[in-house]
Amino acid sequence: MKHVFSTAIIALSAAALPLAGHAAELDAALACNESGHQFIADLAAQQLIEPTPMRVERNSINAFKPAKGADLSAFGFHVFAVVGFEKDDPMFRTGDGEPLANSAYGAVVFGGDNAVQDAVTRGGSNAIVHHVAPHVTAIFCKRD
Question: Is residue 1 part of a domain?
Fold first, then answer.
């Protein structure tokens, strides 16, 4: 899982600046009580993310960038990418490797691992906090 998000992070760096416009907190969704389909479909329906993934990792994780004007946050951190996958779901493209899980989703935020982990724990989520790069961390939910 070490390189799950690294390539997507580089590709999304250009879209990382905070945007004025529609703000949304993803904390409740990142409590890991929903499916990858529900998470991505809800954000797309609210026009908070681009409906088509900008990148698909080998493990089938689809990376979506926030829609123009959307300002997403998770546990107080700025979100610059959301990721998701649901097995056998036409909303998602599959990669050429083994899928990470049957259902997975999350957010990639600007923030150090420890600070993000503390905020996620305080928020009551059991999400996985994963180091991506210096000051870039993924908050990730998955179901097998």
Answer: no
